[in-house]
Amino acid sequence: MTTLLTIIVLVFILIAIWQMVKIFDLAQAKTDNAQIATDKDNTLNGYLMMGFLAFIYIITIICVVKWGDLPLLSNAASEHGGTIDNLMIISLVLIFFVQTITQFLLHYFAFKYKGEKGKQAFFFADNNKLEMIWTIIPVIVLAGLIIYGLNTWINITSVDESEDPLIVELYAQQFNWKARYAGSDNTLGKANVRLIDIDRANILGLDEADPNAQDDIITTELHLPVGKPVLFKMRSQDVLHSAYMPHFRAQMNCVPGMITQFGFTPTVTTAEMRQTPEMQEKVANINEIRVENSKPLVAKGEEALERYEFDYLLICNKICGKSHYNMQMKIIVESQEEYDAWIAEQKEFKNSLIN
Amino acid sequence: MSAHADTHAHDDDHGHHHKETFVTKYIFSMDHKMIAKQYLVTGTIMGIIGILMSIMFRIQIAWPEEPNVLFEALLGKWAPDGVMDADIYLALVTIHGTIMVFFVLTAGLSGTFSNLLIPLQIGARDMASGFLNMVSYWLFFLSSIIMVISLFVEAGPAAAGWTIYPPLSALPMAQGGSGMGMTLWLVSMAIFIASSLLGSLNYVVTVLNLRTKGMSMTRLPLTIWAFFVTAIIGVVSFPVLLSAALLLIMDRSFGTSFFLSDIFIQGEVLHYQGGSPVLFEHLFWFLGHPEVYIVILPAMGLVSEIMASNSRKPIFGYRAMIVSILAIAFLSTIVWGHHMFISGMNPFLGSVFTFTTLLIAIPSAVKAFNWITTLWKGNLQMNPAMLFSIGFVSTFITGGLTGIILGDSALDINVHDTYFVVAHFHLVMGISALYGMFAGIYHWFPKMYGRMMNKNLGYIHFWLTAVCAYGVFFPMHFIGMAGLPRRYYTNSNFPLFDDLANVNVIITVFALIGGVVQIVYLYNFFMSIFFGKKSTQNPWKATTLEWTTPVEHIHGNWPGEIPHVYRWAYDYSKPGHDVDFVAQNVPFKEGEVELHH
């Protein structure tokens, strides 16, 4: 209802503006009707250009102050996350610097050199020195960014098998996630969607004859021991999905017919992350919003929204169909002991089959 | 379409005059000026549909799952009790993207201005082939009709995103929109590509062969350079999308496995084996990335021309502008992989594409600095076209700069497919290209319709649009950096993002105002066609050849001889002349020399 009212009000405001312009036009009909900018138009729009420059700066400041305390720029929960954050911050600083200067020049020139009758523009067709300057400076800056960026990228994507990472399969389907742990041999059993047998509860299509598959463990929650490298092998059974773990600065598509991979080392347990001041502030803020949002629900006799508690999430970030917006799995980072206790409780594949 | 049917060409003494019926003049016209207007009006109508869709899904994002009369009225069965359905949300996002990228900013922008300006500015009587030009428009029209029809099929329109990645787009059981809706989408796009290829070939041939005497390649206005290079990119890359579409049709309808393998869906294993969706991504982006330059280069050309003429100054660095257009065109064909850093492609390829992608920032920076320098010490005439041109440079810089984050594979990992991407490409190629298109329309409206658009409405249109564009897309960077994925029907399942909900409301309010403001433009456009103030022959005092033709359109463009060209297109405020512009067809005075390189 509020939407509708907003729209109606907006429409009326516009109709009013438009009518005022028509009146303005009619009043001027005899004197100036060529529809070409006059000195008065040039002056007015010149000042508006400066106003607009201020608007750009103000909206930038508001955005940075209100929403700039970004969970994705600090508090990375993985070993490589910090390197991405550093590169991101360097790039952002550079962007804001260039943005501030170029927008100033553009709008200031538009204001300063606004047209006047009888004024002569300066015939300035080219200058090789200037062109060289603004070719070479970007070349140098970009060379730096490219080298830094590629170095970071190569470090992230190269998998060091000698570290003996924990192997975990992330399995995507419309519209949920499963995790498959490789078990005590840390080797995933062979699998193919053609082997899926729902009646026998072989939901991921594991090869029942493969000895490596026997101790595999399929779960609906992702538990990771802190400080231990983990190498994810991604599979999808139907369409493209993307395994996005924003707090770990990790993302990889899940592609039917092939296995993709991404590895990282979690460095902050869920419990530790909940205790960080930034996170506590964020969660408190969210809970305030949720209390506020619950009021109309309670008034209608519905249940209030649950209190939010922070958890790492794996979310789908590649359009995958109707319920794409609700395809998530909880990630819990915990100590090695807690992890060992949890995994010991889970059923191995060979025991989970229904005969 | 034109208001001057009654005062038809009267001074044509060159044998170009034929008896014309209503049908040959207004419908199956082979005259490039009429075809340009046809492109513009069709593109405008598609634009209205596309923008209306974006307003609907923005309302859903801001006030998720709340009933709305607009939905009830426009979406019918897809909005039971006025609440938008999740399937139609994805369809709206998909068709909005398709329509805006292809039908508005490719056909509507390049189709309109390439057709209008290439013959007029190079001094040709028409396109190389008027017939192919007509066929090109009518194929575009047909593809538009099919795309609109696809909105009304039983299971819903295509909903796999404008990138239509298989298997989602290939399997009707994966989502409703992948049935008949997707078939029509593919057919429509195949016809669209045919239209685009015919048009592009025509532009290339015309620019190469039909330039008037004295119009060397280095005297061409930058508009023509932009259209020419755009057409070449189109000819190189569009066929690849056609092949992808055909292979996808084969997978969908004839059981092949180009893009599909090992799929288990809705309780059954499908027969597909050995294909790869990543192959489709390569084919798609081999067009898809050049496509953004197909969209932006013509806008750059228009803006360069309008900035020079309204600054009463030569464009700064004419040759550097040409070189940068060529550099962008070349690089645009070897950067497509930056859309695929996390697709499962070999990480080494990611490194290569990061390198080539960041290189594009260099010619782009050169262009931006040249535009800014063009303003320096000018005598700026703040016509609406000029405002949109300045706005273009502003949004191009703001949007372009974040490209160095997205083009960097290491950073892309975390912002890929979030709202950060949405903000980036809307500013750098969506809003910018739209500004270029508006600038072109305000500037060349007198050439198209012989009348002027109302400048005060133009000012209101520009300033409100400018504020709303930043209001919509600037905050979007921040929700993207907070990790909010795009194409989510609602974020209410993620309390993690609850603190971003108010940003989405602000964005939607700006989007609503920005959308409604376009009514001012539409009113101005359509009213001015019929009731606008009559234009003079050269209202902006510009140097290029189109302003030497009569206001009333005639076949063959010039009543007498085609003008000869003696100078480049940018002799504005040249020392030694009494007036502040010297048209291209004016011979050098005695002792006059060229003052540019």
TrEMBL record, chain A:
<dbReference type="Pfam" id="PF00116">
    <property type="entry name" value="COX2"/>
</dbReference>
<protein>
    <recommendedName>
        <fullName>Cytochrome c oxidase subunit 2</fullName>
        <ecNumber>7.1.1.9</ecNumber>
    </recommendedName>
</protein>
<keyword id="KW-1133">Transmembrane helix</keyword>
<dbReference type="InterPro" id="IPR045187">
    <property type="entry name" value="CcO_II"/>
</dbReference>
<keyword id="KW-0679">Respiratory chain</keyword>
<feature type="domain" description="Cytochrome oxidase subunit II transmembrane region profile">
    <location>
        <begin position="64"/>
        <end position="160"/>
    </location>
</feature>
<dbReference type="InterPro" id="IPR036257">
    <property type="entry name" value="Cyt_c_oxidase_su2_TM_sf"/>
</dbReference>
<comment type="similarity">
    <text>Belongs to the cytochrome c oxidase subunit 2 family.</text>
</comment>
<keyword id="KW-0472">Membrane</keyword>
<dbReference type="InterPro" id="IPR011759">
    <property type="entry name" value="Cyt_c_oxidase_su2_TM_dom"/>
</dbReference>
<keyword id="KW-0813">Transport</keyword>
<feature type="domain" description="Cytochrome oxidase subunit II copper A binding">
    <location>
        <begin position="163"/>
        <end position="345"/>
    </location>
</feature>
<feature type="transmembrane region" description="Helical">
    <location>
        <begin position="87"/>
        <end position="111"/>
    </location>
</feature>
<keyword id="KW-0249">Electron transport</keyword>
<keyword id="KW-0479">Metal-binding</keyword>
<dbReference type="GO" id="GO:0004129">
    <property type="term" value="F:cytochrome-c oxidase activity"/>
</dbReference>
<comment type="function">
    <text>Subunits I and II form the functional core of the enzyme complex. Electrons originating in cytochrome c are transferred via heme a and Cu(A) to the binuclear center formed by heme a3 and Cu(B).</text>
</comment>
<dbReference type="GO" id="GO:0042773">
    <property type="term" value="P:ATP synthesis coupled electron transport"/>
</dbReference>
<dbReference type="InterPro" id="IPR008972">
    <property type="entry name" value="Cupredoxin"/>
</dbReference>
<keyword id="KW-1278">Translocase</keyword>
<keyword id="KW-0812">Transmembrane</keyword>
<dbReference type="Pfam" id="PF02790">
    <property type="entry name" value="COX2_TM"/>
</dbReference>
UniProtKB/TrEMBL annotation, chain B:
<dbReference type="GO" id="GO:0022904">
    <property type="term" value="P:respiratory electron transport chain"/>
</dbReference>
<dbReference type="InterPro" id="IPR000883">
    <property type="entry name" value="Cyt_C_Oxase_1"/>
</dbReference>
<keyword id="KW-0472">Membrane</keyword>
<keyword id="KW-1133">Transmembrane helix</keyword>
<feature type="transmembrane region" description="Helical">
    <location>
        <begin position="222"/>
        <end position="250"/>
    </location>
</feature>
<feature type="transmembrane region" description="Helical">
    <location>
        <begin position="348"/>
        <end position="373"/>
    </location>
</feature>
<keyword id="KW-0479">Metal-binding</keyword>
<dbReference type="InterPro" id="IPR023615">
    <property type="entry name" value="Cyt_c_Oxase_su1_BS"/>
</dbReference>
<feature type="transmembrane region" description="Helical">
    <location>
        <begin position="88"/>
        <end position="118"/>
    </location>
</feature>
<keyword id="KW-0408">Iron</keyword>
<keyword id="KW-0249">Electron transport</keyword>
<dbReference type="GO" id="GO:0004129">
    <property type="term" value="F:cytochrome-c oxidase activity"/>
</dbReference>
<feature type="transmembrane region" description="Helical">
    <location>
        <begin position="139"/>
        <end position="165"/>
    </location>
</feature>
<feature type="transmembrane region" description="Helical">
    <location>
        <begin position="385"/>
        <end position="407"/>
    </location>
</feature>
<keyword id="KW-0679">Respiratory chain</keyword>
<dbReference type="GO" id="GO:0020037">
    <property type="term" value="F:heme binding"/>
</dbReference>
<feature type="transmembrane region" description="Helical">
    <location>
        <begin position="185"/>
        <end position="210"/>
    </location>
</feature>
<dbReference type="InterPro" id="IPR023616">
    <property type="entry name" value="Cyt_c_oxase-like_su1_dom"/>
</dbReference>
<feature type="transmembrane region" description="Helical">
    <location>
        <begin position="316"/>
        <end position="336"/>
    </location>
</feature>
<feature type="transmembrane region" description="Helical">
    <location>
        <begin position="39"/>
        <end position="61"/>
    </location>
</feature>
<dbReference type="Pfam" id="PF00115">
    <property type="entry name" value="COX1"/>
</dbReference>
<dbReference type="GO" id="GO:0015990">
    <property type="term" value="P:electron transport coupled proton transport"/>
</dbReference>
